[in-house]
């Protein structure tokens, strides 16, 4: 079977003039092109004519009865590419010698991960994903505790390619390209949130081998979970234990303090009061927004250069690029929509030019953190770095 069996859907125009062009790969996985408003690409896209293996069965989640956490056991991920050479980059456009995942030249491309941690149970034979073998029976089912409990890891994992080039990161993109990616995040958040069984959608970027990156290609990912993640469950409990306007209070507190790194009309970036990591940046919109879908055009327009300045400032701290995790926390699909605010939490273990913070006994085993750098000192250094960035 090839993608010729799945006729491409009609293109649609999104915000900022970004054009969305959905299609499918040879095994039925979704592939969506997002064209820049000033794209030089034509409207046609090549067919994925590869002969490919069937998609792996959905992973199985196991419950840790000591914590209630669900752990997805996804053995198919062992087969994923590991630091391939540029000529075999699986995220580059296909060539006669590189049967990659994306058949055409592109600006931004999003596709279902070939070896996902969360996904459908069987290979897709039509445009609809099949039912999983043993899906969760709702949040109450997942909250119940018991020995030996398992469920299918229902969900979706997508790869977001920021560029067709082999090397780079989000921070190396143009303002126009960054704006296209933001539009893609919003579009995919809406689509993934509407899938049956999805409780939370999480866009993120891993950057650098020190973080565990296995591809140098500039890309991020989007995970769609069948549960509310442990971090967000703790956040919901904190909101319940304080006040519904907790994020507004945090923003006001930080804006009046010494840890603000960059402030715009719609966004503020700051080092949090109780930062865990040597480099830790949080970004909040100035109003309550549950996820990317709720951002106005003006907020998205400002975010593109704002975010690029922050990322380039982080890289300007040292002579070599800094590894980081850029995590966009969004409200769960069905809970906390009026209280949980979209926010970025960027963290890096880099505590000096040639030193990393490793999670040892206290942090890794007990979750009891010890900060290496005072947040005010980190904010001062980041502020100076960001002020020197010109786009």
Compact summary:
22% of the residues lie in helices and 21% in strands. It is α+β, with helices and mostly antiparallel strands and 391 residues long. α2 crosses α5 (297-316) and α5 crosses α7.
What is the helix tally? 7
Mean pLDDT: 93
What strand line-up does the widest sheet have?
1-2-3-6-8-10-9-14-15-13-12-11
CATH topology description of the largest domain: HIT family, subunit A
User: Total domains, how many?
Assistant: 2
Following the backbone from N to C, one meets helices and strands in this order, namely: EEEEEEHEEHEEHHEEEHEEEEHH
Q: What's the CATH class label of the largest domain?
A: Alpha Beta
CATH superfamily of the largest domain: HIT-like
Sheet with the most strands, sense and barrel status: 12 strands, antiparallel
Helical residues, percent: 10-25%
State the assembly state of the protein chains: single chain
Q: Which CATH-level-2 architecture of the largest domain?
A: 2-Layer Sandwich
Radius of gyration: 21 Å
Instruction: Note the gap between the termini.
Output: 45 Å
| Tally of strands | 17
Structural class: alpha+beta
What would your notes on this structure say?
The chain has 391 residues and is of the alpha+beta class. It folds into two domains: 3-227, HIT family, subunit A, CATH 3.30.428; 232-387, HIT-like (HIT family, subunit A). It has helices at residues 139-143, 175-193, 230-241, 246-255, 297-316, 361-366, 375-387; strands spanning 12-13, 19-24, 30-35, 60-63, 70-73, 108-112, 150-152, 156-161, 200-207, 219-225, 260-263, 267-270, 279-285, 324-329, 343-348, 350-352, 355-356. The strands form three sheets. The protein has a twelve-stranded antiparallel beta sheet, sandwiched between helices. The longest helix is centred in the last third of the chain and has 20 residues, at 297-316. Mean pLDDT is 93; it is low at 122-129.
